[in-house]
Structure of tRNA pseudouridine synthase A:
Amino acid sequence: MRILLQLTYNGANFQGFQIQNEGRTVQYELERILKRMHRDFVRIHPSSRTDKGVHALCQYVHFDTHLKLTPDKWQHAFNSALPDDIYITAVREIPETFHSRYDCIGKAYRYKIYQAPHRDVMKTGLETWYPYDLDLVKMNEAAQAFLGTHDFTSFCSAKTEIDNKERTIYSFTVTKTRDGYDFHVIGSGFLYNMVRIMVQHLLDIGQGRRQDDTTALLAARDRKKAGKTAPAEGLYLEKIYLTPEELAEDIPPGTKIITKNTPKSLTTAPGML
Amino acid sequence: MRILLQLTYNGANFQGFQIQNEGRTVQYELERILKRMHRDFVRIHPSSRTDKGVHALCQYVHFDTHLKLTPDKWQHAFNSALPDDIYITAVREIPETFHSRYDCIGKAYRYKIYQAPHRDVMKTGLETWYPYDLDLVKMNEAAQAFLGTHDFTSFCSAKTEIDNKERTIYSFTVTKTRDGYDFHVIGSGFLYNMVRIMVQHLLDIGQGRRQDDTTALLAARDRKKAGKTAPAEGLYLEKIYLTPEELAEDIPPGTKIITKNTPKSLTTAPGML
């Protein structure tokens, strides 16, 4: 049977989601527990592979198993064996036609910056320090140019290996928080470093270091013309949308939802949260 | 000349303040920078040696140097070379008769717990998860029994090597926060694990697992009669008092202040914050 885990992790002390030759990874921690339970290697499949230092408020992984455990027992088995910076928030059995990556139709990311005269060591790894004056209106105006379907070649790492760089952004807002700003973006999917490059672009505009050339930059399809990549520490994978219903709830009414792979199995199944 | 640094650090990824054979320590990070600047070893002296995992919102260290740098230059030299989880908040030159440890006349600690149905991975290393109902009134009542001068043998680690276990508590309050409780204690000084044992004692009382036997426990002078030691992650060294004036501001008016070592040099010098 196929099991879907919903989990959250603090990325500060991980080398990212995916197993590496060296250093802690979320995948290693999960597969280590499954191996012990199955006395055999069991591969997990995530909805998204987050980078080094990136956090997840909601991530999904699935795996196939012959063990007959209830969702509660799975959750307890994981949470009692996982380190303090990973936590399984929900577990359910899913049809074997469902795949956590291919059936993901959208994702939401949040990027957090704080402003203070000096670095706050208690926020190290959790938020990015950005002590410059920012224009909230300008940042929100520029963010609107990302909405819709575009080729994001200018806004992804030059190392991106995927060919199709077209993605759809459904919503992009910047809001003032108690001591900084939150950047919140929902899209069909995101290329390598895409959120962090878009955020730095908006920061450069908000700081007045750059005119709003977002539309021209999208058209240029040239990574070198965009700015730097914001640090990983402020980035949170906030939500993963497995059904159009869930996604529709979080984006403006009437927005057309792109579903490359029509969700086969979960269209009528509500999210787990 | 003698230089005093005021610093803050996030203890989550340190093996404590003091240099160890293995693992990151705050002392190592500071002395590493001084060694590079002086081309020679320079010893630093902290006001307090915090344990593994314990944070500092305000810590002091002093060292002697022949280098003639302004306070601003010292601060910049350290902050540009220190890792992200240590930050120098102020620097000043002090008389060579002043010693950051011997001239410390009081300390304030804060202990943070949060309550939630499940562990919050973003608070890992920063606050202690304590998902049980607590009685705020009972905890504050019990905390009052700690006020004044007592032998704290029952409330310090059995491994404590110091002979005189008499300490004075000036203030001890428990307050409700947005999603948990803060324990705030000010005293003349604290023995090994003393704050964490006192906090766990109050948690046990607040949870109804223990009757308020604080006064009897103090009289018993037996560590085995008290409860467990709360985890390090929720503990913050919040303030260090170098002058009676600073301390008097934070404790009830008229409280008698104990000054074993009469502050020789800083009585008229205000705190650096």
